[in-house]
Specification:
The structure holds 2 protein chains of 2 kinds. Helices cover 0% and strands 56% of the residues of chain A. By secondary structure, chain A is an all-beta fold. In chain A, strands 2, 4, 5, 9, 10 and 11 form a 6-stranded mixed β-sheet that branches. The termini of chain A are far apart. Chain B is mainly β. Chain B contains no helices and 11 strands. The chains are: A mainly beta, B mainly beta.
Chain lengths: 112, 112
């Protein structure tokens, strides 16, 4: 039973525009959320995180929004750059838990 | 440089054979993890270890075994009981619970 869902397998966006990636979760115990970026044949790298006490966290071009009532989070990338073309994974965890649950990923393609 | 080293990059397994994937970290992290990635799917947790000489099953542990004799090392053995071993295997580590994971560059395992 997949507890973290990324329902859009792919996203294509023009360079300089905004990329919006969505993620839904079903486990109400989740209170820590992360986004990872992955290039082919490489390991994922950490991008940004947010805890449930916040509804927004920003780091440069990347902003994550959390809507706890809807069990939904999103990642905004502004402006999108060619180097942002990768697979983005949403992940979630609950307090004091070692386990991260991952979504299936969204492949982002930034067009020149 | 601190990081996580996985070897080999590519591995082939014959039917009925056990193979071992290596994972070494010099980040001084207590926790280590093994994830499996299949095409179009998210990362699924195989095993994790919170501390030396201790490990727990993840969501898909059947057909796999691990050991954690040293803090730096967490090898994964794919046994002949794993009927569908072809996948991209990722090792990760973290300082502890509720912390972001750092990933290695992965091992692609294929069946001959």
């Amino acid at each position: 039973d997949q507890q973290v869902k990324q329902n859009s397998p792919s996203l294509s966006v023009q360079e300089g525009r905004i990329s919006i990636l969505n993620c839904d979760y079903t486990n109400s115990m989740f209170d820590y959320f992360l986004w990872y970026k992955k290039y082919p044949a490489e390991g994922p790298t950490f991008l940004i995180s947010i805890s449930s006490i916040k509804d927004k966290n920003e780091d440069g071009r990347f902003t994550v929004f959390l809507n706890k009532s809807a069990k939904h989070l999103s990642l905004h990338i502004v402006p999108s750059q060619p180097g942002d073309s990768a697979v983005y994974f949403c992940a979630a965890s609950s307090s004091n838990d070692y386990k991260l649950s991952f979504g299936a990923g969204t492949t982002v393609t930034v067009r020149a | 440089d601190g990081g996580i080293t996985q070897s080999p990059k590519y591995l082939f397994r014959k039917e009925g054979q056990n193979v071992t994937l290596s994972c070494e970290q010099n980040l001084n992290h207590d926790a280590m993890y093994w994830y499996r990635q299949d095409p179009g799917q998210g990362l699924r947790l195989i095993y994790y270890s919170q501390i030396v000489n201790d490990f727990q099953k993840g969501d898909i542990a059947e057909g796999y075994s691990v050991s954690r004799e040293k803090k730096e090392s967490f090898p994964l053995t794919v046994t002949s009981a794993q009927k569908n071993p072809t996948a991209f295997y990722l090792c990760a580590s973290s300082i502890g619970a509720y912390e972001k994971l750092f990933f290695g560059s992965g091992t692609q395992l294929s069946v001959l």
